[in-house]
Write a structure and sequence with these properties.
By secondary structure, this protein is of the alpha/beta class. The chain has 9 helices and 11 strands.
């Protein structure tokens, strides 16, 4: 298998030179023969004249070889199998309007959504005490009154982080907390990804490697898929669900505490059951630091190997570069040496 890594730039240079050469030397293929009288003397002027007529073609050969070298020809010689430890992790994130409630992180008050986005970015890229997940295929689904797949499972974490930063809270017309719908779609996306790996000849994911992280600060809205059905779908498809509930701190008393929106008495029984049924775990957090600790625990999950096949290419530009340089030196030596004074 051969490929030109810099195609067409290297060979385009040769093609351009060839066109110019044919324009300047339109009748060059037929070499002009000098007076035969010169052949009586070996090494005479006629022999040098013929050599001079071949110099443009020698230069053309030089340009062709250098053009091939510039195009960086590569030959694939072997297939290498690599094993990268990693997991398929799908983040399912609540972006309902209640995620605008305040949350303390690093000594300052932010919206819950802002904190969740920052901690998830740290979890993916590695920061603030989190190691990062460079070998994991990570995707993102958000939900409010409907479900939105923001990013499929990918190793392009830079793009994933960009998508995370663009998440906005739900507007009034799209508000809600459709946890069951989001969890069901996450499970089905995992199944689709597993099938894609099998179709490409790669090692299929085993049951322990499909992880869903569900984060919410609310309860299931009426309508849609109930959480019991969603949990069963995840279980049947081998997805382990880790559920995280964001709750407010318990009121400390006083008239103002009566009006707090971030309810500390959120009923989390349903998402706790989801985690139990699928073999995951349930976490309850009140601050950004607590959320970081939860991700640190998830970070310690046992890793599963992915098998990947790739062709190793070897650079072969030297095959063309060295002869091209040598012939160029020969052509310049002839042009400015023995053939210098010939037309």
């Amino acid at each position: 298998m051969i490929q030109f890594n810099q195609w067409p730039w290297g060979l385009a240079f040769f093609v351009l030179y060839l066109v110019l050469h044919l324009l300047v030397h339109p009748k060059q293929p037929a070499l002009r023969l000098p007076d035969t009288g010169g052949f009586s003397k070996p090494g005479g002027r006629s022999g040098r004249f013929l050599a001079a007529q071949g110099l443009p073609w020698l230069r053309l050969l030089v340009v062709m070889l250098l053009g091939l070298a510039l195009s960086r020809p590569q030959f694939g010689q072997e297939t290498v199998q690599t094993h990268q430890p990693g997991k398929a992790i799908l983040m399912v994130l609540d972006r309902s309007s209640s995620m605008l409630d305040p949350m303390i992180f690093q000594g300052a008050e932010h919206t819950r959504l802002a904190v969740v986005k920052q901690v998830f970015e740290d979890f993916v890229s590695g920061s603030a005490g989190l190691a990062g997940r460079p070998n994991d295929r990570i995707g993102l689904i958000t939900f409010a009154g409907f479900v939105d797949e923001v990013s499929p499972l990918t190793l392009d974490h830079q793009s994933l982080v960009h998508f995370v930063r663009s998440i906005q809270p739900a507007q009034r017309f799209e508000d809600g907390t459709m946890i069951g719908d989001a969890l069901t779609q996450a499970s089905l996306r995992m199944v689709a990804y597993q099938g894609l790996l099998g179709h490409n000849g790669k090692e299929a994911l085993d049951l322990k490697s499909k992880i869903v992280i569900l984060l919410t600060d609310g309860q299931q809205s009426r309508g849609g898929i109930d959480l019991a059905t969603a949990a069963k779908t995840a279980q049947e498809n081998g997805a382990k669900v880790y559920t995280i509930a964001i709750v407010g701190e318990a009121p400390t008393g006083g008239f103002g505490s009566f009006f707090k929106f971030n309810n500390p008495f959120l009923d989390t029984s349903l998402i706790e059951e989801v985690a139990r049924v699928t073999g995951g775990a349930f976490f309850k957090v009140t601050t950004g630091e607590a959320l970081s600790k939860v991700y640190a625990q998830i970070d310690q999950l046992e890793k599963t190997e992915f098998e990947e096949k790739r062709v190793v290419y070897q650079e072969k530009y030297r095959w063309f570069l060295l002869p091209g340089v040598l012939l160029l030196a020969l052509e310049l030596g002839l042009r400015f040496g023995p053939l210098r004074q010939l037309p």
